[in-house]
Amino acid sequence: MKFPKIYTLKDIAQLIDSEFVGDENFPVYGMNEIHVVEKGDIVFVDHPKYYDKALNSDASVVLINKKVACPEGKTLLISDDPFRDFSKLATYFNPFNKADKSISESAEIGEGTIIQPNVFLGNNVTIGKNCLIHPNVVIYDGCTIGNNVTIHAGTTLGSDAFYYKNRETGFDKLISCGSIIIEDNVDIGAACTIDRGVTGNTLIKEGTKIDNQVQIGHDTIIGKKCLIASQVGIAGCTVLEDEVTLWGQVGVISGVTIGRKAVVYAQSGVSNSLEGGQAYFGSPCDVARKKYRELAGIKVLPEIINKVNKI
User: Where in this chain does the record put each UDP-3-O-[3-hydroxymyristoyl] glucosamine N-acyltransferase non-repeat region domain (predicted)?
Assistant: First the structure.
């Protein structure tokens, strides 16, 4: 997320009441998670395991819970709770705006687009030309929809990321301030849910078709011309390259990449990145032909055991 103007390191430190290391006039342009952070951004880290990754990232400002050596060209914000303060900044720069109408006055709707009854469009939603938005669709603030997009009844776009920190008092939520971008010629079925990015965008690229009852987590990128069948669940920060097919009830863990033109058969569980151009099956899934041979071997295993016991 980029800020509406350039802030100084001192400005940010005052917002979260933290110490800082570096020039107080150091420019700060935005804030982002580690996987999408850019030069000029703030990134947060609160575990020693990830200190080096954050300090060596593209981030210019590292919000951290320990005084460490500051890399050249970067600055530090020292906080007793970076998770809390990152959410505090998200809330400050992207405050919640209560809706007072079903379709916000700031929503932009393109020529030829049809909005069916009982649709909710939040603040600053943009919908392109010749779209069809069916009844009871909910599109939260800031989402962007391209041209020739169809969204079926009961689908929700822009709900918060499923991102929590476990504390003794319960789970603390990381505030989501990213958004969703749906490109041209995408179809989204009924009763789907697509979460907004934490600080960046969840992206569905051109020509992708999504069946009913599909869940797509925060910051996931779905490539062009993908096919996603009913009851698929995709966790956050996942990448599907172009022309990937996921059949019904496939589950995909967070942070993996599924390569171009890969096909994952129904009820498979994807727990690691997959190369493109192959078919996969099983949980954990593997190349389908290999998995089928394994299953065939299991079927004859009792017979083999009986023969061995008779020897």
Answer: 26-91
3-class secondary structure, 21: strand
Please report how the helices 82-93 and 9-16 are oriented relative to each other, as an axis angle in degrees rounded to 10. 110
Q: What are 211-251's pLDDT values in tens digits?
A: 999 999 999 999 999 999 999 999 999 999 999 999 999 99
Total count of residues recorded for the chain: 311
Torsions phi, psi of 299, nearest 5? -60, -35
Active-site residue among 35, 47, 152, 218? 218
pTM: 0.92
3-state secondary structure of 209: strand
CATH number for the region 2-93 comes to 3.40.1390.10
d(CA 109, CA 100) in angstroms, rounded, equals: 18
The CATH architecture to which 108-289 belongs is 3 Solenoid (2.160)
How far apart CA 242 and CA 199 sit, in angstroms, is 24
218 is catalytic: yes
Per-residue tokens: 73 = 């060209």
> CA 205, 206, 207, 210 torsion: positive or negative?
positive
The pairing of strands 150-151 and 170-173 is unpaired
d(Cα 266, Cα 75) in Å, to the nearest integer? 48
